[in-house]
Amino acid sequence: MKKFINDPKQFVPEMLEGIALANPDTLRYVPEYHLIHRADAPNHDKVTIIQGSGSGHEPAHVMTVGRGMLDGACPGDVFAAPPIDYIIGSTKLLASNKGVLLLVNNYTGDRMAFEMAEEASSADGIAVRTLFIDDDVSVQDSTYTVGRRGVAGNFFVMKAVGAAAETGADLDELVRIGEKVNSVTRTMGVALTACTPPARGAPLFELGDDEIEIGVGIHGEPGRRRALWMPANEIVDELLGAIVPDLPFVSGDRVAVMVNGLGGTPISELYILYGIIHKRLTALGMTIGRNYVGEYCTSLDMAGASITLVRLDDEIEMLLAAPAEIAMRVF
Amino acid sequence: MKKFINDPKQFVPEMLEGIALANPDTLRYVPEYHLIHRADAPNHDKVTIIQGSGSGHEPAHVMTVGRGMLDGACPGDVFAAPPIDYIIGSTKLLASNKGVLLLVNNYTGDRMAFEMAEEASSADGIAVRTLFIDDDVSVQDSTYTVGRRGVAGNFFVMKAVGAAAETGADLDELVRIGEKVNSVTRTMGVALTACTPPARGAPLFELGDDEIEIGVGIHGEPGRRRALWMPANEIVDELLGAIVPDLPFVSGDRVAVMVNGLGGTPISELYILYGIIHKRLTALGMTIGRNYVGEYCTSLDMAGASITLVRLDDEIEMLLAAPAEIAMRVF
């Protein structure tokens, strides 16, 4: 294993410290809870939004804390749900008078931790609601889930509720918006290689030199099928062939498209995918209102990508277009 | 080789088409010259800025075309200088009344192509100047260079002259600014893996499972030495140990720091590097005025990173802070 790390056990803390040092004006780091939070949180004019999840999916979620996005992120170790006391501690520390919205990708471990933390926080008198994201069309139940997995489409839920929270929307309204965005968001991914968790030091699963995993999960979970490598056109056709009929997305729909890199795939290849997707969707009679090409939810160093479609309406598009500021930036 | 491509020969055109389709309002694609240019170019109120270089370094430079950055980018094939007629054609098409600034990373092939294109364009009556970037401290002469190589520090030259051009600065002023930024910018990189050019289909060089290449070039050129993998702390010490004394950067300096991923390294690891660098530079008495963590100039799918330092003054910092808009974006 060759990575830019010191001690694998310090992978997450050293990363979090780096994020905080790079954003001294806007972010704070609370090592006790693996918490990265906005320097101005809690802000009692808005609902506090917190996401947990395991580490290893960066920029999700520790690098998506900021104005118009999350107020805080308290990840667990790599691919592990945050401990319950991280969530409770973060919730207590950041709770605003308008309440706390917890965003959770649908994995059994995360659900359990967040549901128990919600209960404990409610008992402490904090108004808390929890929103589950399950955008992955690949498989119904999976290695770590009952129901569908939450993957890169989580970004759109975060962005929409983050924008609405800035306008002062209350907790019920954020839950309505988040559930609505989740309900029109569909994702599927493909792995060209496995990923290597730092503490394991070896690839998480075996994938032959000529093989790809279609429908892979962001923790290396199996997808729909193992296939021989195929050209980008065919990969797009297979992924869209699963995503489009699922909602279904239909002619006349206005959509947002995300091509999300899984960590080891260069952005050049993501734009090749985008070009193909754009033409396929246009041929199906859809209009692409917004596009996102880059890394949003990764699986460590996995080479691969996922495609997400969101059916837009005026409300969702306005929320996605609202300004936001996070650690993941260019300039 | 497993990549998201169709035909390796179409790698660059399909990527460029994807970029153009993703940015219909702001960018245009001219297949004849591999040219991506601003939809509003030429703008006769500003000097036109064009960069060439080989492909395979994305986002550099085809994804850094936009307001406050490049007016156009006309790359060659992967790791190949653009053909002279691409540069001449692009220059003619985008030339503004205020002239054209050509940005060129210092490689022999690129120098030749751009110098000949400058001569031809000048003969056509276009005011053209060419600026060479050579920020890589690793080696003096190299596989493809006389003198030093131009690598990720190129971003700062682009950003500074791009910002100045928006204010109406003339060609001489842009050359002065660009040369100044280049003169205070220093970079060195390290490869954890080789990269695989699509047309070659195999890694460009051999690197053992436990080896790293310190001072690697962005085309896989050898650096200062081949070493066994070492912890991130030691890698940072070795890179900064070459970069800091080179200018030299000294106590009291205010600097910009870039941690640039080479294509296959996840952003989590880049932030681990950033945290270490931040502490080292602070301990040396420097202040970090701006930081950049992400992918700016890659080497296809190479796992690795480079560190760039820029000594700031008020003028440079103001130019770096100016607004800009490019294809590489988050929201």
TrEMBL record, chains A, B:
Q: Which UniProt keywords apply?
A: Kinase, Transferase
Q: What is its EC number?
A: 2.7.1.121
> Kinase: is it a keyword of this entry?
yes
GO term, biological process aspect, one? glycerol catabolic process
Q: Where is the DhaK domain?
A: 7-330
Gene Ontology molecular functions: glycerone kinase activity; phosphoenolpyruvate-glycerone phosphotransferase activity
Of the GO CC terms on this record, one is:
cytosol
**What's the protein name?**
Dihydroxyacetone kinase subunit DhaK
